[in-house]
Amino acid sequence: MSQPGQATGSGIFEFEQEGDTIIVVPAVDLRELEYQRIEEGARKVLDLLNGTGIKNVVLDIRKTDYYGTTALGFFMKLWKSVRRQNGGMAFCNVSDHEKEILQITKLDHLWPICSSRSEALKAVKD
Fold it and tell me: Model-level pTM?
């Protein structure tokens, strides 16, 4: 895993680690045409949560403006894994369009939607 501030890549996602928190940065829009890449990337992210001491996740989606149902399914799997470890999950740098998707699906009630990464890091620790 990378040092704080250094990103490592895994195809569709970039990762950074700060203590017991992993920051997941989708590198491209998570459209349905990216289904296979999302699934592969999701497996890698979920593997990082198993047995590594990481319990919190921040999804920094500053590089995207769209995600579809496959990505929403990944977010739910990720959230379930985080909950099993008594961790927290938060979103940051969410576009208006992405925020609307979370609101329509009522998923904004599950995870804090923060305006900055530092705010999201604080939210998962609280």
Answer: 0.83
